[in-house]
Each structure stands twice: as structure tokens, then as C-alpha cells.
């Protein structure tokens, strides 16, 4: 397991679908202050120049606090931003061709939507995976929830080798259920970003994950 990810439990995403641009720094700091162990910049549908400008505001906050900064989708932007990692989906290219682009140092994560995809991502050499959506979620529209059925198996089979972050429709309110199903690591987006106090919400989520 990548040393930077061994103790990671809660993955926060600064998603421009929920975070106003002027709140970028405050939101990043709130997620980190509440206990997020990784931060991803996710800005679906924005121009690359725009994403680059947003990333330039987030990257230094992550660097200063020692939290890995991950860029969604764009290998070129991850390089340009000196990011600590890149996150790609099933249709964003193969592990090997992406690894060639970003070099050996950067973390490389993959979204997976089934047990087969999770096993395949491990076999291909990804540093971590997202596994979900567990529940249907407006943050990722058009994908059914895969439920909790395979969470325990995938945590055992894959999650003991590389971090498995369960994702999709996870909230503080259903987190105990997700943990009881066997999840050790999670990504939570809207529940943290739409909370009245993101720092407090993140801290609550971190506590619900347990030791
Ligand atoms: N990939 C699978 S589900 C999802 C992504 C990016 C969205 C998770 O967001 P939320 O708001 O925590 O359901
Ligand atoms: Mg993608």
C-alpha cells in the first residue's frame, strides 16, 4: 500500500457543483481541518484553464498541511499543478498509458463500479480505488447504486492491498451502516459540502468511521 495512503480514512472532494468559487480556500481548509486525509479537485464541465486556476488556489493549502492533492480527470493538469495524484474513471484511459504520462511518483486512482472492476484495478496497479456509487446520488447522475452487498468482500480482497474508498450517497446519517458492511475508507461529497459547518460535519464523519 502506498505509504501516503496507509492511514487514510476520509477522502474529501472540493466539487465545483457544490462549492462556490469564492469559497474554494475556505472549503478546502474546512475539509482538512475536520480531518479529511486527501483532497480532490472535481470540476466537471469547466474549461481546463479554469480548472488550472482553481487548482492553483487549492494545491498550496494541501501542500502546507501535508494532505495529498488529487486532480480529477486531467493528467496534464495534475502535472501542471504539481499535484500529488490523479483520479481517473473507467473511460479515462488505461493504467499503463496514464502512468507513462504522469511518471512514477504521482498517486493514481480509479473509479470502479462493480467487484470485477475493483479487482481489475488492483491487478492493473492502481494506487487506490473508489468503489460505488453505493447509493444513487445527484453528485453522479445516471448511475444506479450498487448497494452494500459487496463492500465487505471488496474491502477484504482489494482493500487490504490498496485503499478502497467507498463512495456515492454516503452521509453521516448512513455512515454507520456503511462501516457495518465492512467499509474502512469513504469519500463523502455533498453531505460535507452542503453542511452548515463543513469542518464540523467532516469531523463528525471522521469520528463515525472509528479507529
Ligand atoms: N463517483 C461515484 S459516486 C460519486 C462519484 C464522484 C459522487 C459522490 O458524491 P456524494 O455527494 O457523496 O454522493
Ligand atoms: Mg473521469
Automatic annotation (TrEMBL):
Binding site for Mg(2+): 73, 92
Record pathway: Cofactor biosynthesis; thiamine diphosphate biosynthesis; thiamine phosphate from 4-amino-2-methyl-5-diphosphomethylpyrimidine and 4-methyl-5-(2-phosphoethyl)-thiazole: step 1/1
UniProt keyword Ubl conjugation, yes or no: no
UniProt KW keywords: Magnesium, Metal-binding, Thiamine biosynthesis, Transferase
Details of cofactor binding: Binds 1 Mg(2+) ion per subunit.
Transmembrane segments: none
EC number annotated for this UniProt entry: 2.5.1.3
Sequence ranges assigned to domain Thiamine phosphate synthase/TenI in this UniProt record: 10-191
Class of enzymatic activity (EC top level): transferase
Binding residue positions for 2-[(2R,5Z)-2-carboxy-4-methylthiazol-5(2H)-ylidene]ethyl phosphate: 137-139, 169, 189-190
GO terms (BP aspect): thiamine biosynthetic process; thiamine diphosphate biosynthetic process
Catalytic activities: 4-methyl-5-(2-phosphooxyethyl)-thiazole + 4-amino-2-methyl-5-(diphosphooxymethyl)pyrimidine + H(+) = thiamine phosphate + diphosphate; 2-[(2R,5Z)-2-carboxy-4-methylthiazol-5(2H)-ylidene]ethyl phosphate + 4-amino-2-methyl-5-(diphosphooxymethyl)pyrimidine + 2 H(+) = thiamine phosphate + CO2 + diphosphate; 2-(2-carboxy-4-methylthiazol-5-yl)ethyl phosphate + 4-amino-2-methyl-5-(diphosphooxymethyl)pyrimidine + 2 H(+) = thiamine phosphate + CO2 + diphosphate
Function: Condenses 4-methyl-5-(beta-hydroxyethyl)thiazole monophosphate (THZ-P) and 2-methyl-4-amino-5-hydroxymethyl pyrimidine pyrophosphate (HMP-PP) to form thiamine monophosphate (TMP).
HAMAP family, per the entry: TMP_synthase
Protein name from the UniProt record: Thiamine-phosphate synthase
